[in-house]
Predict the structure.
Amino acid sequence: MHHLNLVKMIDFPQLGDERGDLIVVEGGQNIPFEIKRAFYICGTKQGVVRGQHANKKTEFVMINVAGSSKVRVMDGSGNEAIFCLNKPNTGLYLPNMVWKEMYDFSDDSVLLVLASEHYDAEEYVRDYNAYKDIVAVNGNSI
């Protein structure tokens, strides 16, 4: 099965009252892994594309906690999907070994990324042709 089939949107509980919303994300609960790393992307200029890599091990959930962005995911076999992230109570789950590109950031975009692994430069595949070669030989499993 292609890992693109595992990419999915996740709705988070929206709690709160007249004071405002409270949105809860919990590792191993509504996030389908234990969170080992979190980072956020902000201040991205128009026309800039972020990501442009696949990860051999790491799974991600991306949440635009403010503003909006788009995420293109590809499986190296010609299949792709585009997701618009524009609500702080929804996230995009990305399994390992999908190619990801984030783009079309609004000026006020803050894209929170939750990761299943600590950073390891060795598990990044940053060249799309190399990624396609890996997928051709191994499928989406490493």
The two ends are 13 Å apart (CA to CA). The chain is about 10% helix and 45% strand. The first strand starts at residue 8 and ends at 11. The chain has a mean pLDDT of 92.
